[in-house]
Amino acid sequence: MKILLLYYSYGGNTHRVAQYIRKILDCDVQEILTVTPYTGSYNSVVSQGQREVDEGFEPPIRPMDKDLNNYDTIILGTPVWWYTFAPAVKTVLSAVDWNGKTVYPFATNGGWIGHTFRDIKAACVGADVKKGLNIYFEEDKMRTAAEEIDRWAEQIKED
């Protein structure tokens, strides 16, 4: 089983969790980066994010080093933007053939997960999307216990 940890991070929390999971699973990693980074105040980015989610916008992303076709299993990380996955993740999800792949999603959020995991499952047509891991942050402090992430990652090893 060849595993890729694929993630997008805006504020750094998803990146921190991805690096933690990478140490447990010793897998390949690919960060999703937008061509034009989000800038401005927190509130302006939140407003922009809401517009993009509402419109189904897929921002252009930078070329990725890893070819997703070479992986059987994808660990997919995203921050929650307006109760779903980030628009940059949408760009990737709509461009990949998910048939036969296994997807383990995780999401970082500071409030409510919304329908993030249901939306990921709907976007990854043909994939076996496993139960997602919701990782809660309060400001920059992770409130989800590291042991919960450990158990989730260990389950991926066992599958």
SSE blueprint:
Layout: E1 3-8, H1 13-25, E2 28-32, H2 42-55, E3 73-81, E4 84-85, H3 87-93, E5 102-109, H4 116-123, E6 128-129, E7 133-138, E8 141-142, H5 146-158
Parallel strand pairs: 1-2, 1-3, 3-5, 5-6, 5-7
Antiparallel strand pairs: 3-4, 7-8
Structural overview:
The chain has one domain: 3-Layer(aba) Sandwich (Rossmann fold). It is α/β, with parallel strands linked by helices and 159 residues long. Strand 5, helix 4 and strand 6 (128-129) form a beta-alpha-beta unit. It is globular, with a radius of gyration of 15 Å. The protein has helices at 13-25, 42-55, 87-93, 116-123, 146-158; strands spanning 3-8, 28-32, 73-81, 84-85, 102-109, 128-129, 133-138, 141-142. Strands 1, 2, 3, 4, 5, 6, 7 and 8 form an eight-stranded mixed beta sheet that branches.
Span between termini: 10 Å
Q: How much is the radius of gyration in Å?
A: 15 Å
Looking at CATH, the homologous superfamily is Flavodoxin domain
Shape-level CATH architecture: 3-Layer(aba) Sandwich
Q: Give the helix/strand class.
A: alpha/beta
Could you say how many structural domains there are in total?
Answer: 1
- Please state the overall shape, judged from the principal axes of the Cα atoms: globular
Question: What are the segments in which pLDDT stays under 50 over at least 5 consecutive residues?
Answer: none
